[in-house]
Amino acid sequence: MSKALSIFDTTLRDGTQGEGISLSADDKLKIASKLDQLGVHYIEGGIPGSNNKDIEFFKRVKSLGLNAKITAFGSTRRKDSIASADANLNRVIESGVQAATLVGKSWDFHVHTALQTSLDENLAMIFDSIAYLKQSGLEVIFDAEHFFDGYKNNPEYALSVMKKAKEAGADWLVMCDTNGGTLPHEVHQIVSALAQEVPGAHLGIHTHNDCELAVANSLSAVQAGARQIQGTMNGYGERCGNANLCSVIPNLQLKMNYEVLEPGKLAQLTNTARYISEIANVHMPNNQPYVGTSAFAHKGGIHVSAILRDSRTYEHVVPETVGNKQRVLVSELAGQSNILSKAQDMGIEFDPANEDTREVINRIKNLEHQGYQFEGADASLELLLRQANGELTELFVFESFKMLVEKTAGRPVVSEAFVKLNIAGSSVYTAAEGNGPVNALDNALRKALITYFPRLNEMHLSDYKVRVLDEMDATASKVRVLIESRDLTSSWNTVGVSGNVIEASWEALVDSIRYALLGENQLENQEITAERGGIVNH
Question: Measured between alpha carbons, how far is 382 from 352 in angstroms, rounded to an integer?
Answer without folding.
Answer: 17
